[in-house]
Specification:
Elements: H1 7-18, H2 25-54, H3 61-72
Length: 78
């Protein structure tokens, strides 16, 4: 499906393609859409954390740090 893009966007695409990272404009678009989805998921996770914090659903840092150490087999600091 051919896309109609503005001259400014076409220039941005040409600039990205000139960097040699993408094999095709389709690959560039696929990676851009993936990055957009990941950004949306990141923002949603941040908002969920803020919502939890505002609702008082928190735990002490020491408790969380110890849980992470156990999960990854790290020793507690001396």
């Amino acid at each position: 499906m051919p896309l109609q893009v503005s001259p400014e966007l076409a220039e941005s695409i040409r600039e990205e393609m000139a960097l040699g990272k993408y094999a095709s404009e389709e690959q560039l678009l696929q990676e851009a859409l993936l990055a957009l989805r990941e950004q949306r998921e990141d923002f949603a996770a941040i908002q969920a954390g803020i919502d939890d914090w505002q609702a008082g659903r928190t735990r002490p840092f020491v408790e969380v740090a110890e849980e992470i150490r156990k999960e990854f087999g790290w020793n507690s600091p001396s």
